[in-house]
Amino acid sequence: MNGVSIRTTDVLVIGSGGAGLWAAVRAAELGARTLLVDKGLVGRNGNTVMASGMTVMGPFCIPGDSPELLFEDSLKGGQFLNNRKMLRLLIQESAERLAELERWGVQFDRDEQGNYFRVQSEGHRYPRAATHSDRVGLVIVKALRRRALQLGVQWLEDTMVTRLLTRDGQVVGATAINNRAAELVVLSARAVILATGGISQLFPMSASQAPNSGDGLAVALRAGVPVVDMEMIQFFPTCLVYPASVRGFALGLKGKLLNNRGERFMERYSPEWLESATRDVTARAIDAEVRAGRGTEHGGVYKDARQTPWRIFLSYLDQYHFCLKRGLDLKRTPAEVAPALHYCMGGVQTDEWGQTAVAGLYAAGEVAGGLHGANRMGGNSLADILVFGARAGQAAAMWAGRTSLADPAPWQVQEERDRLDALLGRRGVVRAIELKRTIQGVMRECAGVVRNGPALQKGLTQLESLEESLSQVEVTRRDMRYNRELTDYLEVENLLLVGRAILTSALVREESRGAHYREDYPQRNDTCWLKHVQLCLKDGHLEIGLLPVGDEDG
Amino acid sequence: MAKVRVHVLRSHEAAGSRYQDYEVSYELPATILDLLRLIQQEQDPSLGFRSACGMGKCGSCAVAVNGEPVLSCQELVTQEEIWLEPLPNFPVIKDLIVDRDRYCNNLMPVLQQPPLFPLVPPRPADDPTWPECLECLVCDGVCPVMAQVPERFLGPALLAGTAGFQKSMLPTAWESAYFCLLCGECMTACPAGVKPNDEALDVRRQVTRKGRLPQSLQRLAQRITTAHNISGEENQARLLWSQQADLAPAASNPDTLYFVGCVSSLYPSMYGIPQGFATLMATCDQCFGLLGGEEWCCGYPLILNGMLEEAKELAIHNLQRMKQRGVKRLVMTCPSCYDTWHRRYPALTGEEIGIEVLHATQWLAELVDHGRIRFKELPWKVTYHDPCDLGRRNETFETPRQLLTSIPGVVLVEMKRNRDRALCCGGGGNLESFSPEVMTAIAQERIQEALDTGAEALITACPQCQRTLRAGARSLGVRLPVLDVVQALWRALPEQ
Questions:
Q1: Residues of the domain holding B70
Q2: A-chain residues near B59 (CB < 8 A)
Q3: How do strand B68-71 and strand B62-65 relate by DSSP bridges?
Q4: Is B496 a domain residue?
C-alpha cells in the first residue's frame, strides 16, 4: 500500500447530495473550514440530482391549505411514528430554504400569472410540491455546488470513507480511500457530518442506480452510534419492470393503475385516494394484484397515462423523453410497473440539529432516521435535506468553533491501514459483486413489500452466513486506483451490516405499520408499537432498544 | 439478446494507451452505460469509467462513442462494433475516467466576481421545456478550440453555464468569447439542448459595449464600416472576378440576383467560385444580376463582433438595393452571407425580408434534378467538408453531397467527423482575425482528417472554409486541392 496522507479541516462532510452540500455551504458561511468528500463526483453521485418535486409550505400555499394540514398529512402518512419536533421544523423552515435558493437564482416553475406551480404528491391533500420542470433536484444541486465553490469549500471526489475515528467518545475524523490518488487518507476534523444517503444497492430492483450502499449507516453503527426505524423501507410503487435497460426507473408521472383485466384496482384498496394513496398502500396493492395472478407479462401492473393532462407531463418531461427514447411512448402506451426500493425512512438517530449520540458527529438527509416515520410522503425528502442539511451544517460549525482539533489515535489509523493492506491483492474464491447480488436476493425475498417472521429470521441467518464468506472474497489488484473489487468488497461489508439491521428491526416489530407490513401481524397495534426500534452495534451484535414515540416533542 | 464488440481505449501508465476488446451479449434496448456496467461486472472489474444516476441527470458519464462525445447513459447501442474513448480535451486519470477539475477551477473566479448572485442562469419560469445545463462537459469534449488552447479558453460549458452573469469584466471570459468559433458543434452535441454559442455571442456584445473589442477585430470592423467590405479595398473591385472571366453582363433587371460576398469578390484566389457559378448558370441559360460596387458586406463579421447596430446599417443598405431592383430571388455561394440574409436580417431589422434566399447548392440541385445541367465522366475520389453555416446552422447536409455524386465517376468518401458533427475549418467566429495560429491548427486537424480518407480533393461549399483549409494544407506542406462544390461541378462540365 502507498503512504497515508492527512487532510485537516474544521468540518468534514461525508456525501455530497443535497443534504451534504447544504451542510457544507452552511458550515462555510459560518466561517468553518469545510471539506466535502464523496465516493463519486460532488453533487452528482447521490439521489438528489434525480428528484422532481419539493414539498414547501409558505405564504404561497394553495388556498385552504395550511402548515397544520401538512403536519397532519405527514403524520398520518408516517403512521404517527414521525419525530414530531423535526416534522414541525421541516414544515416551518422549508420556505426559508426555498427563499434562499431563490436568492441564489433558482427559479421555480410558475404559471403565467406568476403563481407557483404545484404538483400533488402521494398522500398530500393539496398540491404542495414546487417544481423546476422535471429537474428540481438537479437545479438545487447545481446552485448548492456553486455556492460551495463560491465560499471556498474544499472537496475530495472519488473518495470513500471507510471508518469514523473517535477519541474519548468524540469524533475526530475519518479514514478514506482516495481512488484518484490511490492512497489511504486520514481526514482529521473537529466535526463530522454524515450525509451519505440511502441504500439503493441493497435491493435487486431499485428506483435509483445511484451507488448508495448505506456507507454512512454502517460506519456510524461501527462507531457505536444508534440507528432507529430501520425496518421502514419505502418501495416506490410504480417503477418500470420492462425493458431490462430501464428496470427500476421510478415513474412519477401520474396515471391510472390497471391490472391485466383492465380493472382500476385502487378503487378496491383505497377508494378515497385511488392512485394518490401513500406509497406504502399502493405498493402493497400492486404486490397483491401481481401475486393474485392479475399482473402483466413482466410481473407488474399497468400505469396508464394516456388521459393525463399535458401540463402534468411537462413536470415529468425528462421521464417522458427517457422512456420515449427506449421505445415506450407514455402518451400512447401504458407502462408495466411494480414496486422497487426507493427510500430508507430509518437511519442514524439524531436530534433536530442532526446531533448523534457521539459528540461532534452529525447526520442529515436520508442517512438520518425518525423524521418520516413509517412512510415518507412524496416531496418531503427534498425539504428534509434542505432544512436538516442546513441545520447540521450550522450545528457542526458551532461545535467546531468551540472544540480543539484532536489528532486521531494512531492505532485506529494503523488498524484501518493494516486491514485494507491485507485486502489488497488477496486471493479468494468469491467475487464481491456476486455477494452483492446474493444479498440483494435475500433482501428481496425476506424484507420486501410483504414480510413475515420466519422469512425475516431466515434472511438474518443467510446474511450472517454471508458475513463468514467475506474472508473468501477476492481482490485481485493491489493497486488502489479505482479498484472496483476493493470498493465492491467494502460496500458489501456495509450492505451486510445494514441488511442485518433492517431484518432485525423488522423481526422485532410484530405489527404492520406504514411501509412495514407483516402478514403474520397484519394489524397496526398502537397499544404496543407506538415505539421506535433502536439498534446499537456492540461486539458485532445488534442490541435492540425500544423508544416510545413522542418523547422528542419536549 | 444481441451481441456487440466493444473496443475500449484503456490507459496503461507505463505502456501508454491501447484498445482492449470485449464481446458483450445484452438485451435490447441497451445503452452504452449498460454495456460498460456489464463488462465491469461480468468480465473485467479493472475497467474504469464514471456513472451514477443512469437517467441523464447527473452528467457524470460522458465518453466518446465512435469518436462522438455523448452521455453514455443516454446513448443506445445500435451498432455491432463500438469504439469507446475517454471524453476528449480532458486529462485522463484512468481508462474512461477524466480529470474534470478545470471546469470548477475556471468557474470559481466567475462565481466570486461581484455581484455574487445569481448562481444559476435565469430562465423563464413559466416554460418547463427550457433547457437546463447538466455540466456534463460533453460540449467541452467536442469543442475544437478546447482541443488547442485549454489554458486560455474557458470552454462552452462554462460560457453556457454562466449565461446572464457579468462575465465581461473578467479578461479570461472575454478572451474566451472571441476564441469561440461559433461553429455550433457544442449545441449539436449537448444532451440537454443548451446553446453555448449564443452565450459567446452575448458576451461579445457586452464586451463591445464596454469598448473592449480586441484590436484586430476593431480593425476588421473599421474596414467594413468605412469600405463596406472585409478587405478594405475600393468596393468597385467586387466585379474584378467577372471582368477576368470575360463573362457577358447579365440582363439589366433579372428577378434573381447573385450576392457574391466579400471573400469571393475580393480575394483573387477565390475568384474561381463566382466564375464557376456563373459558368454553370450560363450553360443552362439562367440569368442573374449583380450589385457590383453597391454590394456591401452582409454584416456577418460585425454580428460576430457583437456590433448589431452597425450590422443593421449594412442590412438596410443591402435590402434597399434589392427593393430598388425588384429582386425576387437571391442566391449566394457563401453560406455565411446566406445565413445572415436568411436568418439574421429578419432579427436585425425586425421584419421579414420578403425575398427568397437560396444557397447556390440548393439552386444547382434544382437545375441538376431537372436535367438542365449535365456532367461528363470524371473519375475522382473526393471528400466533403460541411461549412457550419450551411450544415449545422441550416441543416443542408445532403444537397451538396448529392450534387457531387451526380457527377458520373465521382466517389464521395466521408471524413471521421461529418454532417452535424463536422469539425469546423477553424475560420469561424472571426477567429482568423483574433487568433490566426489557433485557426491554422484547427484547419490542419481538418486537413489531416481529409487525408485519412484517401480523397484526391477536399470539397466544401464556403469561400471562407476554402481559404482556411487551403492555409491549413499549405502550412502542413501537403498537396490536397481544396475546392468549392461549384468549382467541382464546373470541372465536370462537358467541353464546349
A1: 2-98
A2: 44
A3: antiparallel
A4: no
Does residue B131 have a pLDDT over 70? yes
* Pick from B30, B46, B126: CB nearest A111: B126
Residue with cell 491501514: A417
In a domain, B189, yes or no: yes
Angle between helices B360-369 and B398-405 (to 10 degrees): 50
Q: Is residue B405 part of a domain?
A: yes
Q: With residue A19 as reference, give the H or E element that holds it.
A: helix A18-29
Please give the domain boundaries of chain A with CATH numbers for all domains: 237-338 (3.90.700.10), 414-521 (1.20.58.100)
DSSP string of A138-206, one letter each residue: HHHHHHHHHHHHHTT-EEE-SEEEEEEEEETTEEEEEEEEETTTTEEEEEEEEEEEE-----GGGSSSB
Question: Residue B48 belongs to a domain with what CATH number?
Answer: 3.10.20.30
Give pLDDT tens digits for B240-298.
999 876 665 555 668 999 999 999 999 999 999 999 999 999 999 888 999 999 999 99
Pair (B344, B228) in one structural domain? yes
Q: How far is A128 from A53, CA to CA, in rounded Å?
A: 9
Model-level ipTM above the cut of 0.90: yes
Of the residues B90, B126, B136, the best mutation for testing chain A's interface (the one with the most A CB atoms within 10 Å of its CB) is B126
**Model confidence at A223: pLDDT above 50:** yes
**What is the C-alpha to C-alpha distance for residues B229 and B218, in angstroms, rounded to an integer?**
14
**Is A118 one of the annotated active-site residues of the chain?**
no
B429-432's contacts with Cβ under 8 Å and 24+ in sequence apart are B429/B178, B429/B180, B429/B181, B429/B182, B429/B183, B429/B200, B429/B304, B430/B178, B430/B217, B430/B220, B430/B301, B430/B304, B430/B305, B431/B145, B431/B178, B431/B179, B431/B181, B432/B464, B432/B468
Examine the domain organization and report whether B250 and B349 are in the same domain.
yes
Any B CB within 8 A of A168 CB:
no
CA A359 to chain centroid: 23
Distance between CA atoms of residues A315 and A251, nearest Å: 12
- CB-closest option in B94, B97, B118 to A105: B118
Considering the domain architecture, whether residues B205 and B220 belong to the same structural domain is answered as: no
Q: Which amino acid is at B262?
A: C
Give the phi and the psi of residue B277 in degrees, each rounded to 5.
Answer: -65, -45
Q: How far apart are CA B429 and CA B182, in angstroms?
A: 5
Neighbouring C-beta atoms of residue A117, cutoff 10 Å: 20
DSSP code for A473: B
Of A344, A372, A356, residue with least CA distance to A87: A372
Taking the Cβ of residue A236 and every Cβ of chain B, the question of whether any pair is shorter than 8 Å is answered with: no
A109 has a chain B CB within 8 A of its CB: yes
CA nearest A253: which of A174, A306, A213?
A: A306
0.90 cut: is pTM over it? Answer: yes
- Residue corresponding to grid cell 444580376: B289
Same domain, B359 and B237: yes
Same domain flag for B380 and B425: yes
Q: Tens digits of per-residue pLDDT, B52-68? A: 999 999 999 999 999 99
Q: Which of A7, A33, A190, A279 is catalytic?
A: A279
Segment A107-122 mean pLDDT: 90
Determine the 3-state secondary structure of A110 from DSSP. strand
CA A33 to the chain's CA centroid:
27
**Mean pLDDT estimate for chain A:** 95
Interface list for A 487-506 with B (CB within 8 A)? 488
